[in-house]
Design brief:
It is built from six helices and six strands, in the order αββαααββαββα. By secondary structure, it is of the alpha+beta class. The longest helix is centred in the middle third of the chain and has 24 residues.
């Protein structure tokens, strides 16, 4: 997503992760939990921030499909965290979304071209997010992570060279953890 500029209306604390994790990050910590897709205009804001505003209609059918994909992605990330691999239920949830589309290879002027086809337009964003997730898992399932801060529910793809990133954002969650450790040490 590095080529995409976030929508200025997007209130999320972490924007710019790969599409699958960006979809998961439409929910973030708060009381109650903040949910960008819980607002009427939130789906359109997310599509815009994800660079899909021109390709996908921000309607109720698309929102329902994306919420189904977010649910499947959440289950898949939990499965990876608990088991180190995608369990059967997690795979079934992802496959349910993937069943709405396919990649069709055609011969283009300069060689092979892949085209994404979905059975109904509202499934495009959902399908792209789940497909993106499988690409991340192929790069390294262990690099798909949830922030290590207890109060944070954001996810990221650890692209660091040594694979030791722990925080969604060091400036926020990492500093909170350091401050909490310092407080405990100074108090006791």
């Amino acid at each position: 997503m590095t080529d995409v500029k976030a929508d200025p209306r997007d209130p999320r604390p972490l924007i710019g992760e790969p599409l699958a994790l960006d979809l998961l990050n439409t929910r973030w910590a708060g009381t109650p939990v903040n949910d960008l897709l819980g607002e009427p205009d939130g789906y359109g804001i997310w599509l815009s921030s994800a660079g899909l505003g021109e390709r996908c209609e921000a309607d109720g059918a698309g929102l329902a499909a994306v919420l189904r994909a977010r649910e499947a992605l959440g289950a898949a990330v939990r499965s990876l965290g608990e088991n180190g691999e995608l369990g059967g239920a997690a795979r079934a949830g992802l496959d349910e979304v993937l069943a709405h589309g396919r990649i069709r290879r055609t011969a283009g002027a300069s060689g092979a071209e892949d085209r994404i086809e979905v059975d109904e337009p509202q499934w495009l964003a959902a399908w792209l997010a789940v497909d993106d997730f499988l690409g991340l898992v192929a790069q390294g399932a262990h690099r798909v992570r949830q922030c290590a801060h207890d109060a944070c529910i954001l996810h990221f793809f650890d692209a660091s060279q040594n694979g030791r990133r722990r925080w969604c954002r060091m400036a926020v969650c990492g500093n909170r953890a350091k401050a909490a450790r310092h407080y405990v040490k100074a108090k006791g």
